[in-house]
Amino acid sequence: MPRGRRAALRALALLAAVPLAACARHAPPPTAEVVRRNPWLARHFDELTPPQQARVAQRMRRARPPLATTREDARLRWDAMGLEERRALLVPAGAGRSSRTAAAPRRPAEVAGGEGR
Known about the structure:
Order of helices and strands: HHHHHHHH
Number of helices: 8
Shape: elongated
Distance between the termini: 39 Å
């Protein structure tokens, strides 16, 4: 095998060894994943608990420009927002996946709960 071809194959093998999760570390989690972990994001404002309502109202006040100044404004705005807007409000784009989510995939023995039995 020619020397250049061997080097190219070695380089490809090294690239294949890099886990795909390493590439996605800085990407925000998809909306479906966020809603699965926080099902209250899909509820109407009146169905939220008081702490959740306060959190939403606070995030809307702190947004630039502010999305709501009163709790009533926050209620009206929240109910009109789509899931993607709600996710963006509560999970900023700079907040990447957790280190557990972004870690390299485990070997099949670890996933099954065994240590190579």
